[in-house]
Amino acid sequence: MTSIILIAVGIILIALNLNAVLREKKSFRGQLDMRQNDMEDYKIEIGKIRKEFAETVFELQKEIKSLKEENKNNMDKMILYDRAGNKVIGDSSPKKHHQATEVKAEPKKHETKGVNNVKIDEVRNLLHKDMSIDEISKKTGIGKGEVLLIKELYIK
Asked: Structural domain tally of the chain?
């Protein structure tokens, strides 16, 4: 009689454990593990490219924001010219702009222009040393997208 009870308890435990294993395979974690193991190489590369692109866009957004703030600060110090070609130091008040007709703003170079030239020269030198885009990006701390952009726009 006890042997029948032990066999019945054993069968019940096996059935419960089998049920738990099947539930685990259907769980989110089980599905995630299966998908990660089945992921193909090109999908992994696409994910990396998306990440790099997102980082580059974020860097561009930060730079645009800083340029906007810099432009607001520089509007007070803008150098203007009147019809005779004389410099008129303008502020952002509308009175000054109406007094000097046909006012042209003097083109100003951004302070970051020197920094950009340093980046361009550094990337150019590293490209001439036959370094890959990944190596240049890691060495300079510049995003891969920016390195590619410098390569295409300035170094041809």
From this structure: 1
Residue 48 lies inside a defined structural domain of this protein: no
Q: What is the dihedral of CA 146, 152, 153, 154, to 10 degrees?
A: 90
Which is nearest to 121 in space by CA: 135, 113, 60? Answer: 113
Within-domain flag for 100: yes
> Residue 104 — pLDDT band, cuts 50, 70, 90?
very low
Is residue 28 domain-resident? Answer: no
With a CB cutoff of 8 Å and minimum separation 6, the contacts of 35 are none
Which one of 99-113, 115-129, 134-148 scores highest in mean pLDDT? 134-148
Does this model's pTM top 0.70? no
